[in-house]
Structures are given as structure tokens and as C-alpha cells.
Automatic annotation (TrEMBL):
Coiled coil: none annotated. Keywords: Isomerase, Pyridoxal phosphate. It comes from the Bacteria. Gene3D superfamilies: 2.40.37.30. GO terms for molecular function: alanine racemase activity; pyridoxal phosphate binding. Residues 279-378 form the YhfX-like C-terminal domain. GO terms for cellular component: cytosol. Residues 34-265 form the Alanine racemase N-terminal domain. The lineage of its organism: Bacteria, Bacillati, Bacillota, Tissierellia, Tissierellales. CDD domains: PLPDE_III_yhfX_like (cd06811). This is YhfX family PLP-dependent enzyme.
């Protein structure tokens, strides 16, 4: 999905990936992250957000909840985490990162609420009155009042399978009234997901119908209960290409994630904006009939893997690009599959991919590298897919 663009905009990353694998510094099934490019991307994202007075939380699940990458991003001033689930909050909170938002896609389990409150999150997103009650009880024990954000949903909104939940717009006022009676929580905002998506037909980022629901919910809370709505959070596809849309549509918060590695769908089409900063490295395991098989473990079912550069160097690989076959989600990704066609892959060759991923759901390793652009490659360390340093 991103291989062509990475070869054009950050060829040194691919060259570094080849070198590290050929030297044995990294194994197959490793994501290589260009830390300098990530810092650059964070800087221009923050500059764009400041231009529109938009507040940002960084999402790190796509790069494996990595605390070192989070710290690098925080240098830009985007210094608070949005945790996709409480485990991510604990990982990064224990690493010293500030926690901005917890609970949006995954609610906090009952017996983990105290642990999360100890991290002093800026806000917690809740889907139900019952969860607000649980948070309130724990907050009262600590003598605090926790700010919460309500996830708003309507029957005809665009919701991904496995992510259904929230306050129905027709029930919002009644539910908010009940929450307002609680001593340990305070409603300060609203959110929904996804609010923006890339449109393949128009080749641009557009708002979803969820935005209408979200704005309607904010209005109900303001006018019906006089609640001071400090956060109107518009996550999904947040990058330099779409931060202006948050402002244009009445929001003031966003949650960039893939933008830091230049891997949102629009980055596969545009030569401007964030620089591609991540590739996936594998190796030819074997060939059988007209297929070449690479070591797997890091393929993601929504990754849109298109091709891989294969060889012993960038110069060899740029002329030896093999088309990739789609791996069925029904099977374990023990191997990636490449069509040999008229190419000549050999066992042991390096294979470099660039596709959309979510490292935290893989079994990959993650290599953090600096100095790529200066030709002074510095491998900072190897981490697992959940942000723990291996070596």
C-alpha cells in the first residue's frame, strides 16, 4: 500500500531496512521505524493543530504502544496519550507518559478502574451510565472528581464491527441527567468514531455521518443541561490533511496515530504531508511452484498489502518488486505469499513491505532507528509488539 510512496519519499528507510537485515541486526517479522521521520511528522502535525487551535492526543497502538516512540512524539508538544484500551494506558503510564483519554474504543474493566484513576487521566470516555457509576464510586474513594467524555451513537451511524456502543442520541438527555447526579464524575465532552475517513472515489478525507450525531449530542447536553462542553473530539484519519476539518466542523480535539508514521490511506496518494516512517521486513523462506513465501507474524488483515521489494540491497530490490497475495483472515499468517512471475527471488533474500498495520495485534518485533537520513544508522533497540524492550 505504501511501498511506492516510501521508495519515493523515504528511500533511505528502505535502504536501512535492507542493511539491518543483511547484517543480522534484525530478524524477519520486524517493523523498522524511522525515529527522525516520526519526529518530523509530529512537528508538522503539531504546527497544523496550533494553526487551528486544536488539541491532540497521540495514539500509539499502531506502533505497538512503544514508550520510546511516544517520548519522541511528545517532544513536539503532543504529550498526552489516548489509550485504545486500559492495558495501553498502564503500559505508557508506567513509562511516565501523560494519559489524556482512556476508554474510547475499549471500556475500563470494573476491577481496573482504580489503577487507571491512579494514572490521573485527563478524561475517561464512557459508553453507559453503569460505567460512569463505577468510575464515580472509585473516584469518590480517592477524593477526586473525574472528567468524563460521552461516546454518542445513532442507529444509522457508521460503526465498525466489534466497536458498537455508546449513548443513543434519543436517550442522551435522560442518561446525562442520571450521570450529573453522581459525585465522582463530571461530563466535559463528547466523542464518536470514526468521524473522518478517506474516500477512494474523491481521493480526499471526508466527514462521516457520525459527525452530525456528535454535534447534535453536544447541543443536547449544552442546551438541555447547561453542561460546559470542553471537548468535542473528532478521531479517525487525523493528520495534517484533516486537522483543519476538525475546526471546520466544530470540533476542538483530535487523536492522530497513523499520521506519525505517514500511513493513513491518503499518504499512499500524496507527495506532501507526513513522510512514510515505517516498513516491515521479512525474508524469503522458500519457493514453491510459482510462489515465494516470506516469514509472517506481522501481517494485518486490513493492511492492504500489495507488493514487496526483494533482494540483497535496495538497488537490487527496486528492480525486483513482487506482487503480494492477500492472506485470508481465516488462517494464521505463518507466511506471506508473493507471486514470482518473471522475478528471481532466492531463499534468504530480504523482503521489504510497507502497508497499513496495527502492531499491537501482531507478534512482530519493532526496531527503532535513528540517523537514517544522514547515513549514520543507529539501532536504538528492539521491542516486542506491546512496547517491551527485548534487546
Amino acid at each position: 500500500m505504501f511501498l511506492d510512496m516510501t521508495a519515493k519519499r523515504n528511500p533511505n528507510l528502505i535502504k536501512a531496512a535492507f542493511q539491518l537485515h543483511r547484517e543480522g541486526a534484525i530478524y524477519p517479522n520486524t517493523y523498522v521505524l524511522d525515529m527522525d521521520a516520526i519526529r518530523h511528522n509530529a512537528k508538522i502535525i503539531k504546527e497544523e493543530a496550533d494553526k487551528y487551535n486544536i488539541n491532540l492526543y497521540m495514539m500509539t497502538k499502531q506502533i505497538g504502544r512503544n514508550p520510546e516512540v511516544a517520548r519522541a512524539i511528545s517532544e513536539s508538544g503532543i504529550d498526552k496519550i489516548v489509550a485504545v484500551d486500559p492495558w495501553e494506558a498502564l503500559t505508557l503510564g508506567k513509562a511516565g507518559m501523560k494519559i489524556g483519554n482512556v476508554g474510547h474504543l475499549v471500556q475500563i474493566p470494573s476491577h481496573m478502574i482504580r489503577q487507571i484513576l491512579d494514572l490521573k487521566p485527563e478524561v475517561i470516555t464512557v459508553f453507559t451510565v453503569e460505567k460512569a457509576v463505577e468510575i464515580s464510586k472509585e473516584a469518590e474513594k480517592l477524593g477526586i472528581k473525574q472528567d468524563i467524555v460521552l461516546k454518542i451513537i445513532n442507529n444509522d451511524d457508521l460503526i465498525y464491527e466489534g466497536q458498537v456502543g455508546g449513548f443513543k442520541i434519543d436517550d442522551l438527555l435522560e442518561c446525562a441527567e442520571r450521570i450529573n447526579e453522581l459525585e465522582g464524575v463530571r461530563i466535559v465532552g463528547v466523542t464518536a468514531f470514526p468521524c473522518f475517513l478517506y474516500n477512494e472515489q474523491t481521493k480526499d478525507i471526508e466527514k462521516t455521518r457520525n459527525v452530525t450525531t456528535l454535534l447534535k449530542g453536544a447541543k443536547i447536553l449544552k442546551e438541555g443541561l447547561g453542561i460546559d462542553i470542553k471537548q468535542i473530539n473528532f478521531p479517525s484519519a487525523n493528520s495534517t490533511f484533516s486537522i483543519g476539518l476538525i475546526k471546520e466542523n466544530g470540533g476542538n480535539y483530535g487523536e492522530p496515530g497513523h499520521a506519525f508514521t505517514g500511513t493513513t490511506p491518503i499518504h499512499a496518494k500524496r507527495m506532501e504531508g507526513e513522510i512514510p516512517a515505517m516498513v516491515y521486513v521479512s525474508e524469503i523462506s522458500h519457493c514453491y511452484n510459482d510462489k515465494a513465501y516470506t516469514y509472517g507474524g506481522g501481517f494485518y488483515r486490513r493492511g492492504h498489502v500489495k507488493k514487496a521489494m526483494v533482494g540483497k540491497s535496495f538497488n537490487e530490490g527496486i528492480n525486483n518488486i513482487l506482487d503480494a497475495e492477500t492472506i485470508s483472515a481465516e488462517n494464521i499468517d505463518y507466511h506471506g505469499v508473493l507471486d514470482i512471475d518473471d522475478k528471481k527471488p532466492q531463499v534468504g533474500d530480504t523482503a521489504v513491505y510497507a502497508f497499513r498495520t496495527q502492531i499491537f495485534v501482531t507478534r512482530s518485533e519493532v526496531a527503532l532507528v535513528e540517523g537514517i537520513q544522514e547515513g549514520n544508522i543507529n539501532l536504538l533497540g528492539i521491542y516486542d509488539s506491546l512496547g517491551r524492550k527485548i534487546r
